[in-house]
Amino acid sequence: MGGILVYALHDDEGNFNKNSLGALSEAAKLAGELGTEAAAVVVGDVADDAAAGLGAYGVKKVYRAKEAPEGLAQPIVDVMAKVMTDNDFDYALFGGGLLGFEIGAGLTARLNAGVTMEVTQVNVADGKLVAERPILQDSQIADVGYVEKPGIIIGRLNAFDENETGGTADVEDVAVELSEWSTKAKMVTRGEQRGEDVDIEGADILVGGGRGLGKKENFELAEQLSNSMGGAVAATRAVVDAGWYPYAAQIGQTGKTVAPKLYLALGISGAIQHKVGMQNSENILAINKDQNAPIFEFSDLGVVGDLHKIVPKLTEAIKAKKGS
Q: CB of 286 within 8 A of CB of 301?
């Protein structure tokens, strides 16, 4: 068969992740250029109409593994490996996100495949896919091809835009015998705690808090500012390690990678560990009392001053503007 296979992540309510939908659209476009087809994999008890509805993003077929649990990487690797092997897929494409990285890495090892991570663009050259990946702190772009199939492509967060063109897909149920090690872990519940009830990876507006906030209680300033704009709150590794905010909200090399339309950095110095996680934001506004803070070097707008005085006034101004 050949073609491109995409994993489509969904939540407990059956809503598909926007990065997965972007990957579906990208796969459909690339498959068209290659003269082949794109397909999707879903796991769990996804309704017929929801699975078939993925055809609106260009895929022709959806493989559904009802018995595999959503949210755990190893069972999904089992499913992806079987579907790719049975149908001779040339490539697997994943949207950005931690689970996609984990599944993609596992699938690479299972199939002895080539993999490219943090991909920002995929092109067709000489009838094959070539992935573009930023290197050297995003100062250069590397073109990565694949000597043998399959090729595993894992996109950077928000790298692929979703494009709904209409149509439906054929749904085929697949039975997958899970590996022994894939059944060791069980998903009990998807935890909810302060800072975890908002998807920072998908947020258009993010307010990031650093050590400059002074103490845990001052994260209320970030939350109030975020609420005034309909955004979400994120944090640096330092404050997460200090117990000021949960790990789920951490941005950086050991946290999450984000790409919002607006990122407001409050009291964040701009260390490289944090920069890697948020530098793809469309607009970066930083407030810091240290005029030599590294974050000002890559911010679109920098405000030197006391955030404890500036942020409350900014929040009130935004509220007043929205109320007028």
A: yes
Q: Looking at this protein, which amino acid is placed at residue 270?
A: G
Identify the pLDDT of residue 307: 95
**Is 281 in contact with 263 (CB distance < 8 Å)?**
yes
Q: Is the pLDDT of residue 1 over 70?
A: no
pLDDT tens per residue across span 123-160:
999 999 999 998 876 678 899 999 888 999 999 877 88
Query: Is residue 13 within 8 Å of residue 91, measured between CB atoms?
Result: no
Residue 121 Cα to chain centre, angstroms: 15
- What span, in angstroms and rounded, lies between the C-alpha atoms of 22 and 159? 8
Percent of the chain clearing pLDDT 90 (strictly above): 62
Q: pTM, whole model, 2 decimals?
A: 0.69
Long-range (24+ apart) CB contacts under 8 A made by 13-19 are 14/46, 14/47, 14/50, 16/50, 16/54, 17/95, 17/97, 17/202, 18/95, 18/162, 18/202, 19/95, 19/96, 19/97, 19/100, 19/155, 19/157, 19/158, 19/160, 19/201, 19/202
Strands 128-135 and 140-144: antiparallel
Q: For the chain, what is the radius of gyration of the CA atoms?
A: 21
Neighbours of 170 (CB within 10 A): 13
Between the alpha carbon of residue 169 and those of residues 7, 12, 142, 182, the distances in Å are 15, 22, 34, 29
Q: How far apart are CA 5 and CA 90, in angstroms?
A: 8
190: helix, coil or strand? Answer: coil
CA distances from 187 to 17, 202, 246 (A): 19, 23, 20
Q: What is the pLDDT of residue 190?
A: 56
Q: Indicate left, alpha or beta for 205 from its phi (over 0: left) and psi (-120 to 50: alpha).
A: beta
